[in-house]
Amino acid sequence: MNYPDGFSFELLHQDGKARLGRLTTPHAEIETPVFMPVGTQGAVKTLACEDLEAMGAQIFLVNTYHLYLRPGADVVEKMGRVHGFTSWPHAILSDSGGFQVFSHMGRNKITDDGVRFQSHFDGSYHDFTAEKVIEIERQLGPDIIMSFDQCVPYPASHEDALKGVKRTTAWAQRGIDQFNRLEETGDFPKQLLHGIVQGSVYEDLRRQSAEELLEMDFPGYSIGGLSVGEPKDQMTRMLDVTLPLLPEDKQRYLMGVGYPEDILMAVERGVDMFDCVLPTRNARTGLVFTAAGPYNFRNAAAAEDYLPLDPDCDCYVCQRYSRAYLRHLYSVSEITAHRLASYHSVNFFIRLMEDIRLAIREDRFMKFKQEFLARSQSES
Amino acid sequence: MNYPDGFSFELLHQDGKARLGRLTTPHAEIETPVFMPVGTQGAVKTLACEDLEAMGAQIFLVNTYHLYLRPGADVVEKMGRVHGFTSWPHAILSDSGGFQVFSHMGRNKITDDGVRFQSHFDGSYHDFTAEKVIEIERQLGPDIIMSFDQCVPYPASHEDALKGVKRTTAWAQRGIDQFNRLEETGDFPKQLLHGIVQGSVYEDLRRQSAEELLEMDFPGYSIGGLSVGEPKDQMTRMLDVTLPLLPEDKQRYLMGVGYPEDILMAVERGVDMFDCVLPTRNARTGLVFTAAGPYNFRNAAAAEDYLPLDPDCDCYVCQRYSRAYLRHLYSVSEITAHRLASYHSVNFFIRLMEDIRLAIREDRFMKFKQEFLARSQSES
Question: How many CA atoms lie within 13 A of B353 on its CB side?
Fold first, then answer.
């Protein structure tokens, strides 16, 4: 598959294996490495489009599974697809929903054809196949869409993981066929389809998965099935096996990762795109990311602390509000606390990627990484 | 009592009994009639200071009872009193907490000295007296503070309401004495103290309460104990009795009111200040205020509605987001829906007051009122 009209990926600079790139879609020019805030149900939790724009976010992620269930792909399509529906004129990426339907253990039945699953909302039954998922993603209309893959849980036996790789390969090809069939109708916006490498923590399966997908020549590759509970060194090892196989001139997306230290590890190895729910999910429990490491503003010590969440942060929350105030709002259940903390933490990831890009551009990525880790580990 | 240094109220113009005024505090010049968003626990629910500033709000309200319980008056004082604690550099008004402690029926014991009540958080016992409440309010440090009053529930017998008036009068005087004692210590910022007229729905008691408070010569009067369940014509009648007794050259604050039609009714009679939780509370149930009347965006009809919440509104929410999107966010429990709807509705009240002030200035308040009501009733 070629890059569709309006899409391209340019590799601008390399510092070791760390890559500075530019991913262009019809809705945005995205500098990579990029962190994509997660707006599972069409909004990044507690935030609005204005917030993401103020941070300089150029792309966010929606989830096919969630939008398919509610409000339904037909409604989203009718309301101007995801861009019109969410009023976000910049880039959007959709996850295929594979992770979601496979992680509802006991509620789904997997065959070579696809998966029958129950809605987590109302228990109704639904079928996802490789074809169906692509059809939904084309209806929804994000710039970048994912193939339907089978993400096996961790730990998985080699046998189960191999089964997952085989299905992922078969579904990738069926997805491409469906994508092209629908393309011919002319009814859909231009979209870029990623293949997703699976294989659990088995080097041979990661290689097999990557090689089989490479034959289909996707205009972009995702690495899935990591950050699902495996030890960190396993994730690192799988990246070391997988990334050298992927074409240099296409963007690589490590799905669902992760902590700042994971992102730095993966950028070092040549990953270009990241997404993670951590900044918003943790913020709603009182835990924010700061230059000095994780900080929990529910701590008793915050009660009379004049400092902002992160004294080194230039976001509007840190420019104005004290830990004491945010702790108070949190403790009296004011959701403004969730919102302000979420803003800070998502902004932290956006700024981290800016700093990473600058460091790559200036050929000092490893130094940046070491300093960042030293600082966040010594003070946290 | 005189207006303290840095405080004044100027009557700029009258249109009938409707008044255009300017209430000056050390932190703001507030054009009246004004609507004060309610930030009970130190934040207007789901909103941040930036939101209120964007709307042009010059003052918001905090609750003494809530801040006394959490985080505690000492903490607020230490963190720079309410202005420093909330990072709001403009004006702040505090309610005395009387309404809250008296509305927790069965959990409080009222004597002539004050009230013993149980915290709604943890059941701990606390005593509020006229002196204690003023002391807390001086510690908290809002620009405008309220005397401790007894707000009797509706309906109340004449006997009970009379008892409430007598206590309110006695507590008002004790509050003034305490206020002046604390003033002499020099430890507190300049603050303006309001007396609160009570009397339930009895004309003679409203007169008695107003006359007794007038002898104490407060630099501002509040009208309490209304909008507590009584029929609307009773509220109107009580204003007709009370307002003519109040000095023309001091601001009048109708506490806890209300719906746009109530505000218009009261402005017509000479009220200058309002507060109400309706815009935020209703927004969190999916109900917003619009020029065409109340609108419930949870309605099924909103599911595919491209229109904004209020097609006549210029707020950022209405400039960007559709009813369909907000309905979706609400239905999947994204609190961004609560936030965007709250922003719209608070902004609606701020704009309403701007329109009211302009109408008074141009001697067309009654015409404005009629047109506003005709429109909101015909279309809602």
Answer: 29
- Note if B95 is an active site residue: yes
Half-sphere exposure of B335 (CA within 13 A, CB side): 18
When scoring B67, B79, B330, B346 by the number of chain A Cβ atoms within 10 A, the one with the most, hence best to mutate, is: B79
Q: Compute the distance between CA of residue B294 and CA of residue A349 in angstroms, rounded to an integer.
A: 40
Q: Distances in Å between the alpha carbon of B128 and those of B64, B101, B209, B218?
A: 11, 9, 21, 21
Query: Per-residue pLDDT tens for A91-137?
Result: 999 999 888 888 776 678 999 999 999 888 888 999 999 999 999 99
Query: Please, are residues B117 and B125 in contact by the beta-carbon 8 Å criterion?
Result: yes
DSSP B264: H
Residue of A nearest to B284 (CA): A335
Express each pLDDT in A244-303 by its tens digit: 999 999 999 999 999 999 999 999 999 999 999 999 999 999 999 999 999 999 999 999
A363 is catalytic: no
Residues of A in contact with B46 (CB under 8 A): 335-336, 339
Do A109 and A219 fall within a single domain?
Answer: yes
The answer on A53 and A131 residing in a single domain is yes
Judge whether A270 and A280 are in contact, CB under 8 Å.
no
Residue A77 distance to chain B (closest CA, Å): 10
Contact B67, B76 (CB under 8 A): yes
ipTM over 0.95: yes
Question: Does residue A287 sit in the same domain as residue A220?
Answer: no
* CATH at residue B236: 3.20.20.105
Quote the pTM value: 0.98
Pairs of residues, one from chain A and one from chain B, whose beta carbons lie less than 8 Å apart: 110
How many domains would you assign to chain B? 2
User: Would the CB atoms of A87 and B306 count as touching at under 8 Å?
Assistant: no
